[in-house]
Design a protein that fits this description.
The protein folds into 2 domains: about 100 residues, no CATH class; about 210 residues, MetI-like (MetI-like fold). Helix content is about 55%, strand content about 15%. The protein is built from 14 helices and 5 strands. The strands form 2 sheets. A 3-stranded antiparallel sheet has the order 1-2-3, with no helix packed on it. A two-stranded antiparallel ribbon has the order 4-5. A hairpin with a 2-residue loop joins β1 and β2. It is elongated.
Amino acid sequence: MSSLPETVQPVVEPLRDEKTASTATYSQRKLIWRRFKKHKAGVIGGYIVILMYVCVFLGEILSPHNINHRYFKFVHLPAQRIHFFSEEGFHFQPFVYGIQGHSDRSTGIKTYTEDASKRYPISLFVRGDSYSFYGLLESDLHLFGTGKDNPMFLLGTDRFGRDLLSRIVVGGRVTLTIGLFAVFISLTLGSTLGVISGYYGGNVDNVIQRIIELIFAFPSIPILMALSAILPPEWPSHFVFMGIVTVLSLIGWGRLAREIRGKTLAIRDADFVLAARVAGARDRRIIFRHLLPTMLSHIIVIATLAIPIFILSESTLSFLGLGIKPPMTSWGLLLSEAMNIHSLSLYPWLLIPGGCILVAVLAFNFLGDGLRDAADPYSSR
């Protein structure tokens, strides 16, 4: 029997390249984070989302004025300009000029000009209007401003002379928080019913899917308007807030449940599920200890992509007067100030809350796209 020459050695090819070998010991969470960092749009969206939530959390501190303080002398004032130069030359500390109002007797429209004889320097950590920080702390310290009762309206004022910048910062807390609460409730309900529907199938699946189809059979906006109209008008603002969250959750859980159901159908016959059944695990343990944790990354992606839908829904309801009620405010309620052509033509700065909604929706969509690509095991990133 012939044998191979001693000089001939068997060729052993590497099973993995260096890139694959370097990540072979990574956990699933670390692999997802590694792929997500390469998604530039997703990372930028994540930074914007974090920045927005930090700003709205510190809303009263970042706001130069109290959101309910009315400056009747400065009704519908355009955005003020920040200056570094005056007749005296350059100033290291930025400032704004005083304001002079003039009424046109023929049109009744009030116009404003800068009063160069009055200069208000913008400082950090100044004393201004008093506020209550989440009911825990009473203070009058603001991050920046020109002092109490001094005019500084960087984004202009509304029809009552209230500072638009302060109302946008504080109002964003309501809009963004409603998105989080609504997606949490709808995701809890949708994930539970979706995994039950996909796991058991049969009559259970048919009943749940028919309920979802019944919800989808009606246009969402009329249903939201009808459910919002049921809320008693005498309810306080925080009750209305929770009512809007409940309404949005009841409408939005169906789409999430269907996506979770499809994912459950794909993995319910996987080896680890069959092994749990053979080991005598109960259905509840299989659902909540095996199926749902396996789909956690997918659920996070669904939640991130669902938040913009709830933000737009709340903004729509508040814009139509069926959502958040004063004295609480939100971006949708602020945008309702620019509902007619007259306001748009004369006071275009009232559209700024709409730009905030646009930025928030795009940021969440970019973040959700990045998480979706990162959670995909077949992603090329």
